[in-house]
Amino acid sequence: MNGSEASPGTAMQRKATWPDRVLALAAMTVMWTLLWGDVSWGNVIGGAVVAMLVIAFFPLPPLRFQGRIRPWALVVFLAHFAWDLVVSSAQVAWAAIRPNGEVINALIAVRLRVRSDLNMTLTGEALTLIPGSLIVDADRDTGTLYIHVFDVKSLEQVERFRARVLALEARIVRAIGSRDEVRMINNAAKVVPS
Description:
By secondary structure, this protein is mostly helical. It folds into 2 domains: about 10-55; about 70-190, no CATH class. The chain has helices spanning about 10-35, 40-55, 70-95, 115-130, 155-175, 180-190, and strands at about 105-110, 135-140, 145-150. Helix 3 (about 70-95) packs antiparallel against helix 5 (about 155-175).
């Protein structure tokens, strides 16, 4: 094979990235529009232009989705997520107006059980969208998320939050993960710490 010929695998990889790019373009355009809070032609077109620039100048490695969508588990995830939004919003609001006003924050490291880039991203995004928690760093090699948590006063609350993160990860994996990832989550759930 001479240097000018492309291997079949390379050509297939190049073709496979177009659907990923279109999906990324659509997702970034939607996010842009949501951030502006107004669905207008200007915001949609502006979002598409920004998304194209991001894709052109900051290309991401191809991300292969190897899981499958499980409708019931997805409904369970969305219901829990909506509940977490309501409860966390109420807790943050109460912390802002309560009489003593003392707020102690924490930086908590949580090692995820499924270390795929997609799982880390989705878990991190879901956590950041919930009021009172914010991802400050992620260690891809160890699968660890470093999370700033609002209003934590005891080690017991730290451990409860860590358990909530792992439960969130489990719901995400059960909703869209591969069979191996779901098996990994289920096996980890059976192990009881001593």
